[in-house]
Write a structure and sequence with these properties.
The protein is an alpha/beta fold. It has two domains: 93 residues, Rossmann fold, CATH 3.40.50; 178 residues, 3-Layer(aba) Sandwich (Rossmann fold). Helix content is 29%, strand content 16%. The strands form two sheets. Strands 8-7-6-9-10-11 form a six-stranded parallel sheet, with helices on both faces. Strands 2-1-3-4-5 form a five-stranded parallel sheet. α3 links the parallel β4 and β5. The longest helix has 17 residues.
Amino acid sequence: MKLVVLDSDTLGFETGAWEPIRRFGELKLYGHTPFDESIIGDRIADADFVFTNKVPLTSAAFAGAKNLRFVGVLATGYNIIDLEAARAASVTVCNVPGYGTTTTAQHAVSLILELCNQPGLHSDSVHAGDWVRSPHFCYWKQAPLELASLTVGIVGFGTIGRRVAAAMDVMGAKILASARTPRDTPGYADFEWADNKTIFAEADIVTLHCPQTPENTGFVNAELLATMKPSARLVNTARGGLVDEAALAQALNSGQIASAALDVVSQEPMAADNPLLGARNCI
């Protein structure tokens, strides 16, 4: 049996971490695989098992890998896999549902706090000598936002979304949440189920925690962004493909929304011409 790992470096594992699966067959590790269908096809051509974190497997990849029986997605989402092609080829696809749950929730909260308090902006300003030159004891570039006075919208109320919501509840924020199947309503001080349109229209901060599917790809588009408050912030630690990046860049640059903090983009590594690289108030 032949096993192929397409992007072992993405996970930051030492080579030895893969040793336990060598007993299942011949193991080939690729630290990095370019998003090139011909290269991907060559590397998995005779593989029985393939593991990938970010490298996509399209219908062409499945068509060329005649021995392929199993794909292990070393992440939570299936969006990099053509599931219809996998199903047609009788290939089993598995993910890691609990992967990075605590880390992602913590990171989302840190981005929300960065947008509210902007410690990075103030640190840069102080290091540049702005406070030294200021006559004031209290120095700030921008007044902080208190979560206790804000409404936070959680799009996708799974494990990660609920952890972020719990942190926001502790800080006194009102929580609006959407889910495909609302259930187990939490006992927060101020909580409501809402649809995505309501969340984007009413929330001061919208944070995305839903999986990416063909149905919701690019759903954060110009039309939806136009419904947000000019003071609103957007956080995305889910999937970059959920957001129309050109529309978001336009919304930021025009002042239609206040700021955004993104951990993910549609193409990773980020393309040099991604419009968000030059967008105003975008982390």
